Amino acid sequence: LLMLSRRDVLFVLGVLPAMTIAAESTAENYDVIVVGSGAAGLSAAVSAAQNGAKRVLVLEKTPTLGGHTILSTGYMSVLVHDGADEATYTKAVERIMEVFLKTGEGRGNPQLVRQLVEKSEDAHQWLSSLGLVWTPQSYQTLAGLTSRSFIPSLVRAGYDYIVTLNKAARMHGVTTLLNAKANLLYVTPQGAISGIRARVNGVEKVFTAKAIILATGGFGGNVAMREHYDPRLDATFTTTADPYQEGADPATGDGIVLAQKLGADLVDMDCIQIIPFWGGRLTDYVGADIYLTGEGRRFVNEGDSWKHIASKIWQLPNRECWVVTDSQSSKGASRSVKLMKDIVQKADSIEEMAAGMQVSPRVLKETLERYNRFVHEGVDFDFGKTTFTQDISQPPYYYGKEHLYVHYCCGGLRFDERARVLRKDLSVIPGLYAAGEVTGGLHGADRVGGWAITDCIVYGRIAGKEAAAQTR
Fold it and tell me: How far apart are CA 398 and CA 339, in angstroms?
């Protein structure tokens, strides 16, 4: 484990004190300040402006907008009414909640989950009203467990969300500052939010506001913090936002540390999602690929929850598996990069693929024939897979080794249905709101695939609306 200094420990545990703004401070005044410019932050900023906040500021610590969202595959899960009567719709809500709570091992907050599901369609329509155009069909995204995910593009969905939301923010007069790292929250003597300090292009600045929304993402990029809660996830694990360590993952727990100084409570911090992502996998939906051991045999239901799939990969030698698809599948945005970096290979026959994988061609052929038989029969007798979009029979074949990466933090700041940040005694920190991956208590031990973007939009909008009301 890494040796931590006293300062590191204070940073990890977030016990440095907050401050009040000195009377002589020269500060810029805003109604609402949002920290973070991913889907949650920009949704909050647009929502605040739409709900009456006149001066809205977004602080983004990096030189570009987007956070993790701009890098994401971008599947957004939605419960659509589709003409169903209220009884049928209510049953659908309850079924999704059951899946959420089962996947989260009972640790998710049912009230937060219900609100997320019930407001998902409105969030989807809101994005459409801002100009986002969707592909016509829905998908079962990986670990989504059912087909209800929508996407604006198979190759640049995350980018599309950010462009759409940023355009709306500009139309509503939202101010954005890049290279602006927030480092301290200010409060009144009574404990209510009064402002924030940030280092903007190397200069310390103070901004006042009656409401601040934290949308800074999770802490997967902070090795010390994640090791504190899950000692297994040391520096040998890279993240899905910086898989090849060519840059830096901006999700370093900033909002969590800021809020802890005000006594904010944390929940589910040990629930860090690891997934196979930046290796041999080319598709982001269920039914177009299979996962194989080093001997060329299937070992898991590829449509299961991430936690179950990861646990199975963890048991394999070197924590790695092969992923195989063919020419029929719709490849994600990573296809060209993976082929260029030789992470994924192409083969014109099963025999060529077997040679590249160094497995028995007989075993690989038997595996594919058995799986394709399941596809045509609609039943997976080996692992219970239920979603099939194709067989795997049309060359060229694509194959590559897949590994586990730190992907998503299910834990974070405890918050309520109004996106208000809560203290350990469950009292509200007046004027402090949070949305997106910086929050905890919604997903529980594990997250159902496709609901992270929905979470950002739904609770970002709620945070913006509530923050605007706080300024009045």
Answer: 9
